[in-house]
Amino acid sequence: MALVVINYMSSISKSDFKNFFKYYKGEAQQEAGVEILFDQMRDVLKDDGHDWIQTYRSKAESSVSGHFTPDSTFDTKVTDNFTYSELTNGGEEARRFTSQDQCDVAVEICEFLEKARAKFGPIKITSGHRPPAINAAVGGASASEHLFAPGCGAVDAYPINGGGAEFESWCDANWPYSIGYGMSYRGFVHIGIRAGKPRVRWDY
Ligand SMILES: [Zn+2]
């Protein structure tokens, strides 16, 4: 009997408990487990106005970065401080992304820009997505990362408040993929990713 009690009382931690929700994917066995939990819950916890339900919902609604897709409106935040508009030359329809993979690469780059922003202040993106026709028109390289071909993507950017040289050095030290050193000659740093994510460096 004692052994049974010990097993029964072995407790999960609060973080263990959170993980049940974090990794919930609506799988059949998960739903069955949640139903058991629901059946054991006191009625007060099932009150739609209960603190836990209100808190849980408010978090979801105030989440800053919504789901960013090719069809999102241009004012959609890619990350907290960078919008879809900034990646498309102010919101040009012709520069919309056409696949979710492109959006995901853009998020990865913008997450890096957020770190740069925390250190250097507002960051101006001078060029983001350039579909083939636009890339050709502006004389971009035929294999430019700005095309956002599968696994690729890039932005050209500089810190609005100055400190461009420091920004370039910081990007060089902290971005493991593609960097084009353009601050001196072009007024921006090219920050990109190419397929397979190799480390690449070049001068303009
Ligand atoms: Zn570039």
Question: Rounded to an integer, what's the Rg over CA atoms?
Answer: 24 Å
- The helix content, as a percent range, equals 40-55%
Task: Give the C-level CATH assignment of the domain at 101-203.
Answer: Alpha Beta
Bound molecules: zinc ion
Q: Which structural category do the helix and sheet elements fall into? A: alpha+beta
CATH topology of the domain at 101-203: Muramoyl-pentapeptide Carboxypeptidase, domain 2
Number of strands: 7
Largest pleated sheet:
5 strands, mixed
Strand order of the largest sheet: 3-4-6-5-7
Which percent band covers the strand fraction?
Answer: 5-15%
Shape: elongated
* Count of separate DSSP helical elements: 8
Report the order of strands and helices.
HHHHEEHEHEHEHEE
Mean pLDDT equals: 90
Cα(first) to Cα(last) distance is 77 Å
Detail the poorly predicted runs: 60-65
**What CATH architecture label of the domain at 101-203 applies?**
2-Layer Sandwich
Characterise this structure.
By secondary structure, the chain is an alpha+beta fold. The protein has a domain at 101-203: Muramoyl-pentapeptide Carboxypeptidase, domain 2, CATH 3.30.1380. It is built from 8 helices and 7 strands; from the N terminus they run ααααββαβαβαβαββ. The strands form 2 sheets. A 5-stranded mixed β-sheet has the order 3-4-6-5-7. Strands 1-2 form a two-stranded antiparallel ribbon. Strand 1 (77-79) and strand 2 form a beta hairpin. Mean pLDDT is 90; it is low at 60-65. The structure holds zinc ion (ZN).
